Protein: Tagatose-bisphosphate aldolase subunit KbaY
Organism: Paenibacillus contaminans
Amino acid sequence: HLVSSTPLLQAARANGYCIGAFNVHTLEMLQAVVEAAEELEAPLILQTTVGTVKHLGPDYIVAAAQTAAKRAGIPIALHLDHCTDFNLVVRCIREGYTSVMIDASMHPFDENVRQTIEVVKVAKAAGVNIEAELGKVGGVEDDISVADEDAKLADPEECVKFVELTGVPTLAPAIGTAHGIYKGEPKIAFDRLEQIYKLVDVPLVLHGGSGIPEEQVKRCVSLGMGKMNVATELRIAFSDAIKAVFNNNPDENDPRKYMVPAKEAVKALAKEKMIMTGCVGKA
Ligand code: 13P
Ligand code: ZN
Ligand code: NA
């Protein structure tokens, strides 16, 4: 069965590694990251954005993830990524998600606290992990778009207050990474991350994992990031592989053929990220 990501992330924090959390949109993508995690004996967080929940249906997603969890010899959690809608959070918990993000980072601090407390109440009662965001992660993720000039680093003192007030078990502090592929290199505020890690005792989440150079990912992990979200790079790998098939053979019409290299590309990329974040062999 699917497990809550809270104990997985607590173990990651306690032992200084970071778990890969992968946004999937199709059955093949889900199978690809599950196979990658199994082969590397890594704990796994599968995640879907609100857009994917609407596209596939939460019941289909939960059924596929549960099947993966039943078959796989590794712990798997299913996480709802960047949800701004309390009702959808509740629906996904009812369907069987084992982790949810309430993203009220676009609101003032007090409103973010208020919305997060509401979710913490229902999710904790259901044994489900909760993630919230402080500061604002830049870039585009589904319907949430934050211009570079509006991106905002998390304030360490606010992080302390936020965790105290909400009881949230995992926190995503914005530290300068962004959703999507970077123009140039991300400017990560490592000093800020270090401060937050020292002040706050819950596991921390790194958003915007696509495009962060390996050295910077490793530095984030060494400074306490316990979960890294990867979305855009997986979509690109999946789509590029399909494009290559059709470029070479425009008449291809069998999904069982053209999906194979796409799945392999996602699997290889997921493995790369798991090796980078140090969660290999931690299942
Ligand atoms: P990327 O699209 O940059 O990988 O960001 C993923 C993410 O943070 C999902 O919440
Ligand atoms: Zn994100
Ligand atoms: Na990114």
About this structure: Residues 82, 137, 141, 179, 207, 229 surround zinc ion (ligand 2) (CB under 6 Å). The longest helix spans residues 255-277. Residues 5-277 form a domain with the TIM Barrel fold (CATH 3.20.20.70).
